[in-house]
Amino acid sequence: RKEVEQDPGPFNVPEGATVAFNCTYSNSASQSFFWYRQDCRKEPKLLMSVYSSGNEDGRFTAQLNRASQYISLLIRDSKLSDSATYLCVVNFRVGNTPLVFGKGTRLSVIA
Amino acid sequence: DAGITQSPRHKVTETGTPVTLRCHQTENHRYMYWYRQDPGHGLRLIHYSYGVKDTDKGEVSDGYSVSRSKTEDFLLTLESATSSQTSVYFCAISESPSGGYDTQYFGPGTRLTVL
Description:
Helix content of chain A is 0%, strand content 54%. Chain A contains no helices and eleven strands. Chain A has strands at residues 4-6, 11-14, 19-25, 32-38, 44-50, 55-57, 60-65, 70-75, 84-91, 99-101, 105-110. Chain B is 0% helix and 54% strand. Chain B is built from no helices and eleven strands. The A-B interface holds A 4, 31-32, 34, 42-46, 49, 51, 87, 91, 93, 96-104 and B 31, 33, 40-45, 48, 50, 56, 58, 90, 94, 97-101, 103-109.
């Protein structure tokens, strides 16, 4: 069974804080990983892909741990505009099987 | 933003009526997907298409059918709507079948209420 598990939160953090989300996945053969962001009543949008060596985009850092089958997202210096739901997404790479989405982790950044 | 539109954006219908949702893209991407999103669930795949007239079932396909007669359009039909199909429906597109590091881009969604 293909599963992607996330802590649903909510995470309530003050502006400027550092917050980290983890996500676990069930299939060790999975090849590609993503973090999406979804604002309330909006569509999911790609935040960043997750590469084996880890990658950074401004205040956001994504890490992949294949041995333990988890992915993390670190947000530094949180802004009010970071408030959203963050979706962990895994490509289980079986034929044409598309992506599997976690249920999301909700973040609220408070002034 | 990727050129994806969905219509209608909101719809209220009655149990037992047929409903068709439309997804239109201007990106000429080969792959198109229909998802539903419900509280307590992640996005769940209903059907997808890997080319004109080529479609396949996803995780929650019962009660739904799809058609793709042109690259740019992917239609989702609820043959006889039920209250359990009340949901937000998202269309997505991708250039490759989610292999490698390609990704999916989503339309704005359709909120469907079945009374």
